[in-house]
Amino acid sequence: MHSTSAAAVTAASSRRWHVLAIVVAAQFMFGVDSFIVNVALPTIAVELNASSSQLGAVIAIYLIGYATLIVTGGRLGDIYGTKTVFLLGVAGFTLTSLWCGLAQSGTELILARLAQGTTAALMVPQVLATLHVLFPDAARTKAFAIYGIVLGLAGAAGFALGGLLVTLDLGGFGWRAIFFVNGPIGLIIIAAAALIVPQAPRRPGTRLDLPGAVILFIGLLSIIGPLLFGQELGWAPWIWLAMAGGGAIVALFLRYERALAARGGMPLIDLGLLADPAFMRGLGAVFCFFFANQSFYLVITLYMQMALQIPPLPAGLVFLPLALAFVIAARHSGARAKRRGTLVLIEGCLLQIAGLGVIALTVASVAAPSPALVALVLIVVGYGQGLVMAPLSGAVLASVQAHSAGSGSGLYGTTTQISSAAGIAAIGSLYFALAAVSSGRFALLVALAVLAVSLVGCIVLLRRMRRAALVPS
């Protein structure tokens, strides 16, 4: 079986750029669906009579489902083969996207988005695994550069496509078209992948820690869920108890993982990484960065559509200059990071903070900024994000030993999604609460201040990570 899979990979090397296009298209579809919902939120709220808490949950639960199972998805690819699990993931993602489009209530849409995120956790890990196998030579840099650019464009494409589909109202489907569009795209990816994507060699001895994944999912949901619905439920005492219980469950998860390792099992995470100060401080910086990242897009979208009454299509197109600035910065940040290390990341965070200040000044001084003006002031933030996001993973994983690279990458990916979900829950709740008692402008200004504080935390932790990495272990 192993030799057959290896032969298939070798045979596929001649058409590996076609394989790259297929798997990156699946990654792009996942990235687009992280953002495509944003510009449709006001329409969804009206049609499904969804509360503000449910709107936040529609975005956050997708990330939670993905984050808690991404390591499990990677392990399944090792056990059953990347091609098999990739096809199952794409098929599941396509079906759950259709379920999202058919949802008849806010609660049903949240459940469908959870299912969509969990199927993405089967699909996405196989993308990087396939690239690692097919590009072991000098073409690897070009392949991963394409992958990085696609990641950067997915957000802007999500906003633009979401605005376009809601505005066109194709077939009278309205906002539901943003999910239905995944149907034909998913079928094309499945057909193409079945024909030419190779089955990478399986890794003998790999085992699945499903109980660990379930415990982690319950713990994280118990922490982030109350953040999403706390305002709607009046921050009752049991809300805080539920969050404390979630923290206890996460602590139980770590105890379970240690006990599993002591029995000779294969834990979900490499526990040795938790003792690496440089890596842990790096993960803290990752949490602060992504906490401020996706929640930024949420509050800007809410402000444009609910406070400024900008229609979905212009609101979506506002982010295109930001995406262009992101791609330009990302193309150069890798080379700069090789020369200057984490200083480039710190500069990127400082640039983002400056960009948030420019946005705040614009919002405070202009009563109703036009879409063109909003697009212009977002460029600084986009360039700063591009400087950080591309080299961040390499900087954080630099202290990880080769034998722990897979587990370290899994922890990195999990942290990015969990922090994004936590940011959406916390900053989204803050925005809705302040907008209800004051105005959208005031809510946005406070949210931007909190995001700036989070980026300051990222800078502090990056500096501490750099010092820890310089100290011999």
Automatic annotation (TrEMBL):
Its main location: membrane. Residues 19-466 form the Major facilitator superfamily (MFS) profile domain. It comes from Rhodopseudomonas telluris. Keywords: Membrane, Transmembrane, Transmembrane helix. The chain crosses the membrane at residues 20-41, 53-73, 85-104, 110-135, 144-165, 177-198, 210-229, 235-256, 312-330, 342-367, 373-398, 410-436, 442-462. The keyword Transmembrane applies. The keyword Protease does not apply. This is MFS transporter. It is a multi-pass membrane protein. It is found in: Membrane.
